[in-house]
Specification:
The protein is mostly helical. The chain has one domain. Helix content is 83%, strand content 0%. The chain contains 10 helices and no strands. Helix 5 crosses helix 6. The longest helix has 30 residues. It is globular and about 50 Å long. The two termini are 22 Å apart.
Length: 200
């Protein structure tokens, strides 16, 4: 196993985390460009909204996979977790802004949709759970809270991830495989984390 993990861990130690921020924000900018130039189909606002949301889910899964990789495979990518988490939040925030500003366009309708449409309610709860994680993803917050309390707070990522995936499942019409795969992967990764914690 060390034949694989040692080179990966050496590369991880050498490579900085900042390209994750640049890559994720660059991708969001690219999606916006596609939307403005007709590259996202006949409804560019919906295309942009869905693409940003899905990108946020990918980043959320990437963050969840870091601990199982370290515990089960010996691959240590912990230095990238903050960058992945903050990038995930920004993509989800852009997803929310696209929906509220470009799609719905009126504050009263935004509030009405949150109350009336269950999939939007679930998505908003997931976003609210992510807010304290994003606000405390810095060294100052870690020092103020202390390591134990900071780790407890950041366990909110688990219900946020489940709700985000459920939001995707509820969003699509009918039963579609892709959203169910996202939900299944999230549940498996959280289950692996829980199983390891119980063993510890």
């Amino acid at each position: 196993m060390s034949v694989i993990t040692d080179p990966v861990n050496r590369a991880a130690r050498a490579l900085p985390a900042w390209p994750i921020y640049v890559g994720s924000m660059g991708y969001a900018g690219w999606l916006l460009y596609l939307g403005l130039t007709g590259g996202l189909g006949v409804d560019p606002v919906k295309g942009l909204e869905h693409a940003l949301g899905e990108a946020g889910l990918y980043m959320l899964i990437a963050g969840l996979v870091i601990t199982p990789l370290r515990k089960y495979a010996g691959i240590n990518l912990l230095k990238y977790r903050r960058a992945i988490g903050v990038s995930c939040f920004m993509l989800v925030l852009f997803h929310l802004i696209t929906w509220a500003v470009l799609d719905v366009q009126r504050l009263d309708r935004v509030w009405a949709d949150i109350l009336k449409r269950p999939y939007i309610t679930v998505g908003m709860v997931a976003f609210i759970l992510m807010l304290p994680l994003a606000l405390t993803s810095n060294n100052w917050a870690l020092r103020k809270l202390g390591g134990a309390d900071w780790r407890k707070l950041h366990k909110l990522v688990y219900p946020a991830a489940v709700l985000g995936a459920v939001h995707y499942v509820m969003l699509v019409k009918g039963i579609q495989i892709r959203p169910l795969i996202f939900l299944g992967v999230v549940l498996i990764l959280i289950g692996m984390r829980y199983r390891w914690s119980k063993r510890g």
